[in-house]
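Changelog note: in this version the structure field was regenerated for every chain. One regenerated record is shown below for reference.
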Amino acid sequence: MKESKAMEDQKISMSVYFIHLLFAVYFIVLTAERIQSIVRSVRDPAVLLFGDGFNRYVYLVTFLSLAVSLIYLTVTSGNLFTGVFTRSARVHKSIRMERLCIAAGLILVSGMVHTEYTVAPIQFGAYGALIVAIIIQTAFTQQQSDKPVLLWLSVAFLTAFSMAIPVMYRSDIANAALFHVAEAITALVLVAMFTRMLYKVFCKDATNLFYFVSMLTALVLDTVLIVMRSREEINWFVLVSLIATCVLFLIGRLWDRLLSRNR
């Protein structure tokens, strides 16, 4: 009884509290944005949610992503939202970061498909909260890192990598069906890779996230999409983000090699 009371009286650090708070903001804001898009699409008679293959996929993926991620989050870390209102160690100790990272990846899938009435600035606000949480975690862990510069380069690489994940947009090119399949595969694969690196940031060692497989996969898949749609429209956001990702990858690998040589 005394131990339970002591746990209730204990407070978690402000850094842990803000990390949990920012994850909660990420889930709440992204969920709200996705739901408003669905509701407005349903109410608009001009929008046929399952009218063609593209709509069937993006709306089904949005439904499934929201449902699976929120159920998973509630079952594994339901106290996340309670923790917004308290710094009680008893509440926050039950929040598992590895579960939050998985849930973050699951719900991110819904943000990687363009449904009608999508509000991109609100989505970016949700993603911004997640990036700030990553920065806070990195600032906390750099004190124990023997390669702090490489750690920050890894976080910069991860941020650029996340922005290089393409949102699935409708296209009217000649091979539109093939392009949409490539878009879907690219988004799912890169979200999975991002989620793995996100897990490393919060649960393992994120000092070196410069994986050749992740970089090569993003480079090949993004390039294929950009080239396929180049005559219709160039996705400059993804292109610039991909270039930044490549540059940071090269810098990180070179810096790691220099550190190894100086040992």
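Spot check on this record: Residues 105 and 192 are 7 Å apart (CA to CA). The two ends are 52 Å apart (CA to CA).
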